[in-house]
Amino acid sequence: MVETVLLTTALNLKVYNEFQSIYLSINRLVAIYFPLTYNLLFGIKATLAFHILYYLDRVRNLTFENIDRGNNLKYMLYSVKHLAYGGILVTPDGMFYWAVGLVIFPFFVNAFTFARFYYLKNQASQNSEKFNNAKKNMSMFVQTVIQDSLFSVSVIFTLKMNTLIDHRFYTFFSQTFLWQSIHVIDGIIMIIFNERLSIGKNKRISPKENSQKNTSTVAATVPPTAPTSHLPVVH
Q1: Among 58, 160, 190, which residue's Cα sits nearest to residue 99?
Q2: With left for phi above 0 and alpha for psi between -120 and 50, is residue 87 left, alpha or beta?
Q3: Residues 6 or more apart in contact with residue 145 via CB below 8 angstroms
Q4: Where do the 7TM GPCR serpentine receptor class x (Srx) domain residues begin and end (predicted)?
Q5: Is residue 157 exposed (0-12), middle (13-18) or buried (19+ Cβ within 10 Å)?
Q6: What is the reported pTM?
Q7: Which of 85, 92, 101 is CA-nearest to residue 18?
Q8: 155: exposed, middle or buried (Cβ count in 10 Å: 0-12, 13-18, 19+)
Q9: At what angle do helices 2-33 and 44-72 cross, to 10 degrees?
Q10: Which tens digit of pLDDT belongs to each residue from 11-46?
């Protein structure tokens, strides 16, 4: 029963994280298209209330699911034969359709946001702050789409693809290995798109700044000239 509780807890937290990502996508959409209503819908209080309510809903779902599993002896345990966690899911088809929907819906939401950012990027000059902000938001769009698709890939392999071949190596790959790899890939994506942690990122220096830097460097290397004395030379 302990294994079942731990595994179902991880799954519910994963679903919570996926809905949080969708919430962030809608957040950006409202901010860019409806800025006047943003504080009302996505202010601190509204955001906190939404996350608390949804977190409590996950706790409710987790509690009733494990009570039902305990009463019906439908545990989720690690199978030595298949090298993966196995057990009867409450709604396997429902989770599969949810996974597909959680990719399609945020994709369209992010597409509208991306279109707006792309328009702002083309309207602004390359040296303006609006251009840099639009470019940054477009990068965040790509990151969000990739991370949202990871959940769907995990669910599709866990619920559908693993049933194609009854072999321990295949079930290990499609469930255990793929699940752990997706967590690693998610972390790598966060590092790649993080501005402070991006590898090989160089600060761009404009020609004007480069000229000023070279001038100040030359001025610093030239020793100061001794002051000329205007006193008469005494023999």
Answers
A1: 160
A2: left
A3: 106, 107, 110
A4: 9-194
A5: middle
A6: 0.62
A7: 101
A8: buried
A9: 150
A10: 777 777 777 878 888 888 888 888 888 888 888 888
